[in-house]
Amino acid sequence: MKKKLMVILLLTTALAASAQDFVGSAPEWVNNPPKSVRKFYGVGVGTSTTPEMAEEKAKMDAKTAIATQAGAVKVENIKSDKGVTQRKIVNATLSEVKMVKKACMKDGERYTVWVLMEMKGKRK
User: pTM of the full predicted structure?
Assistant: First the structure.
């Protein structure tokens, strides 16, 4: 009896923990990230058919935002007969970047993940 109760308790805890990341819309911190003179913050968003791929895209987006703040991104405008395309060239080595917050939303077969990442460093 104790083993069954323990298994049920563990399953319930695992389900509750996994459900905590899902939200109905973008969290407040997406549009209003923290500010600091000692840290760089980057918000990223990623969308995919799997939550893992959406999270990887969001992390890359957030790291690009951090690199931009650190002055390691060059933006080029490329003109063509179809208009102007903007290309970001990232030349940065980011260290001690960690995820502070994460939220996930499922809409049909697609997942959207938002992440808030931080990196220590002084602003110029």
Answer: 0.71
Helices and strands (DSSP H and E) totals, the chain: 3, 5
Domain that holds residue 28: 22-120
Q: Is residue 66 part of a domain?
A: yes
* Residue 89, strand partner residues: 74
Q: Is residue 17 part of a domain?
A: no
Do 86 and 75 meet the contact criterion of CB atoms below 8 Å apart?
Answer: yes
The SS3 call for residue 54 is helix
pLDDT in tens, 9-68: 444 444 433 444 677 888 999 999 999 999 999 999 999 999 999 999 999 999 999 988
Question: Is residue 7 domain-resident?
Answer: no
Name 105's bridge partners: 112
Q: In Å, what is the CA distance from 43 to each residue of 13, 50, 56, 119?
A: 29, 20, 13, 12
Cα three-residue angle 98-101-102, rounded to 5 degrees: 110
> How many domains is the chain built from?
1
Q: Is 117 helix (H, G, I), strand (E, B) or coil?
A: strand
